[in-house]
Design goal:
mainly alpha; three-stranded antiparallel sheet; two-stranded antiparallel ribbon; 5 strands; 9 helices
Length: about 200
């Protein structure tokens, strides 16, 4: 029996175990890093994009995206705005939809608070968006901020509950922008809906 051979074999086995352990640690670190990289998706908002749309596309929720990006009003994002979208596997898409429905109910119940918030701003519109907005205004009120039709008030004929008692032109503009962004994504989509159903 060769004692030196045994020692050499033992040393080789120890070295192999050490190498394997190091490889395992490295693989685990790489896997963790790759998984971390896959948990968020960097996106840039284009015309017509909404937080809800991103949530549906990537299996996230409006609340998760709002928290990740510190959005004070998730119903209003700007063209060119960069967002980090939490990404989950496709089996959670239904859960995300359900969570959005809950958030939507909460948002609707808080419309009075959010409609007068100074955090809501009217986005800058391109030519086609301005034309779509003008189309709706013309068909709803002819541009009259004082127009009344039952519970529908002003230039955009908004439900009086949305305006929270503030019928000023500035508040009408803010609430209309919020309403369209939340419901349709943009004015062009709202106009298409109006053309089909004669309301938006």
């Amino acid at each position: 029996m060769n004692v030196s051979g045994i020692n050499q074999n033992q040393t080789t086995r120890i070295n192999n175990q050490t190498t394997n352990s190091a490889n395992t640690v490295n693989f685990a670190q790489q896997l963790a890093a790759s998984q971390a990289a896959l948990t968020t998706k960097a996106v840039t908002a284009q015309q017509g994009d909404t937080v809800w749309g991103f949530a549906q596309k990537y299996g996230s929720t409006v609340q998760q995206i709002a928290q990740k990006n510190h959005l004070q009003n998730p119903n209003l994002i700007l063209i060119g705005q960069k967002l980090q979208v939490p990404v989950t596997n496709s089996t959670k898409t239904t859960q995300a939809t359900q969570a959005y429905s809950v958030n939507q109910t909460t948002n609707n119940s808080n419309t009075q608070k959010s409609s007068t918030s100074s955090n809501i701003t009217v986005p800058v519109l391109n030519k086609s968006e301005k034309e779509a907005r003008a189309y709706i205004v013309q068909h709803e009120s002819g541009g009259n901020y004082n127009a009344r039709n039952g519970k529908y008030i002003g230039k955009y004929q908004l439900d009086s509950a949305y305006l929270n008692g503030d019928y000023s032109s500035a508040n009408q503009e803010k609430v209309a922008a919020k309403y369209v962004a939340e419901r349709y994504g943009n004015w062009e989509n709202a106009m298409k809906h109006w053309e089909t159903y004669s309301w938006y």
